[in-house]
Sequence to fold (256 residues):
Amino acid sequence: MNILSFVALRNIGAGLFTVFAQMKILTTATFSAGILKRTYSSAQWRALFSLMCGILLFSEPIWGDPATRSTQEGGNAMSGTAAVLIEVSLSGFASIYFEKVIKSDPLQLGIWERNFQLALGSFPVYVFFILGDAGGEAGIFGGWSWIALFLSLLGAAGGLLVALSIKYGDSILKTLATTGSIILSSVWDHYLLGGPLTAVMVIAGVQVVIAISDYTFDATPVDVEMFLPPMTPTKSASTDFAGSDDKEIVEGKDLM
Fold:
């Protein structure tokens, strides 16, 4: 998925990439309903759709810039769009499948073991691309700095945190937290680095918070009729029924 992100950004602008990337919210919910057989109320689906629209509005300074909407020089818009759509679909599937494995694992492997397995599977892929490109202009071990090393370690630790959030929550809640972090990071970017924070972004941020609250605290009642046990006669009802039969029999003997 990381490789597909690079392919997409090589062919389309960051604006289009940001718009298509928000579909990850809906793909995750769709795979959750299909693989984990979860049911979501209409209010929760509306909240997810509203959340996606809110994030799109909040990222308007990115995709609203004509420079970021344009196709990259020498790029192919069709290839870039296909790459980002495949990336968001695979992201939703991977999150749900990873949640299923963690919560229904007969071996009861821990978060560390599962992440180590995933890392071992991805190493050959990255090594193949690195050797095939010869490390680019900087070389295989070139271009590293202390900041790059720190960000790499931070990203690896973030993967463990994501796994923990899926184990003790679910993939949808992880997606909600990710979208909420976009709002928080943008606010800090504005006050610390002078980034943009327009009126549209503020309104969109409020919409995102409301959508997250609507999904999390949805009180739609669940239809439980199918879970009700079959009606069985109580002890008192059986006794009364038997008593009435005995009384009729006794009265019949008296008449005879």
Residues 2-255 form one domain. The chain has twelve helices and no strands. Confidence is low (pLDDT under 50) at residues 223-232, 234-256.
